[in-house]
User: Fold this.
Amino acid sequence: MQIATNILNQLGGNRFVAMTGSKNFIAGDNSLTMKLARNSTGANYLKISLNSMDTYEVEFISIRGGSLKVKHKFQDVYNDQLINIFETTTGLYTKL
Assistant:
């Protein structure tokens, strides 16, 4: 739960939630998954996982009708790159 909380805080915390319309947060062992609002990628879920090298794996996923498709995947992402990758990929802004 602590890792998921840290990931959300690195994205911007409550400001991120309000600006992007993200919801249905799920904390995994080393990950945070959330449902995304409509965006330019067509992905409706985002999964951010912490790996053993202390970097993140970011996956933009589309789940429709029981099929799962990874739209975009980024590996070895540092915490200061999370916001930029999110904004660039989805077209959604995390702050004013």
Q: What stands out?
A: The mean pLDDT is 95. Helices lie at 2-11, 14-20, 82-90. The two ends are 28 Å apart (CA to CA). The CA atoms of residues 33 and 47 lie 4 Å apart.
